[in-house]
Design a protein that fits this description.
Radius of gyration: 16 Å
Order of helices and strands: HEEEEEEEEE
Largest sheet: 5 strands, mixed
CATH class: Mainly Beta
Structural class: mainly beta
CATH superfamily: Cupredoxins -  blue copper proteins
Helix content: under 10%
Strand content: 25-35%
Shape: globular
Strand order of the largest sheet: 5-7-8-3-9
C-alpha cells in the first residue's frame, strides 16, 4: 500500500516540465496573432504553476516550448513572474549568452529579474532568420531550465507549441 502511494505521488509531479499533472497547459492560449498588422503578443508566465518546479515558462522548461516568428513581425513579450524567486525574459542568441541580442529585447534589468508577482513587457522585430532563445538571465535560471526556443523563419505566421 505504501509503495503504491509513493508511486502515485512521484508520478503526480513532473519536475522536468514543471507541472503537477504531468501535462502542461495548451500553449496556444498564450499567443495572440494579428496577421493583418503582422504583430503577435506572447505571454510568458515564469514559474507556472508556482507550486511545482518553478524554472519554466507557461509550464514548459528546457526548451520544450517553441515560439516560431517570421522575419519582420513585431512580437510583444508579456513576462509575468509567478514563481517565488526573481526571473526575467530576454531574447538571446544561445545558452551561453548573458546579454540580449539587442538592447531593449528584454525585461528591465534582466540579470536582477522581476520580483515574484511583478510583470513587464518588451517588443522586438527580428530581421534575420535563425535559432534563438528567450531565457531568464538571472544567475542559474537558464541552467535550471528557464528558456524556450525562438525560431525566426522567413515567412508564415507565429506559432507557440510545446513538446
Amino acid at each position: 500500500m505504501l509503495a503504491t502511494l509513493l508511486i502515485v505521488v512521484a508520478t503526480a509531479c513532473d519536475p522536468v516540465m514543471g507541472t503537477g499533472s504531468g501535462t502542461p497547459p495548451d500553449p496556444k492560449q498564450y499567443l495572440k496573432v494579428d496577421a493583418k498588422t503582422k504583430t503577435a503578443i506572447v505571454t510568458l508566465i515564469a514559474g507556472y504553476p508556482a507550486t511545482d518546479y518553478q524554472f519554466n515558462y507557461d509550464g514548459y522548461g528546457n526548451g520544450s516550448l517553441v515560439l516560431t516568428v517570421p522575419v519582420g513581425w513585431e512580437v510583444t513579450v508579456q513576462c509575468a513572474n509567478h514563481s517565488t524567486v526573481p526571473n526575467s525574459c530576454a531574447v538571446v542568441a544561445s545558452g551561453s549568452d548573458t546579454q540580449p541580442v539587442q538592447s531593449g529585447w528584454t525585461t528591465p534589468d534582466p540579470t536582477r529579474g522581476l520580483d515574484p508577482g511583478q510583470s513587464a513587457s518588451f517588443a522586438f522585430t527580428p530581421q534575420t532568420a535563425g535559432a534563438y532563445r528567450i531565457a531568464s538571465l538571472v544567475r542559474g535560471s537558464e541552467a535550471s531550465g528557464m528558456w524556450l526556443d525562438l525560431e525566426v523563419v522567413q515567412d508564415g505566421t507565429p506559432t507557440l507549441t510545446g513538446s
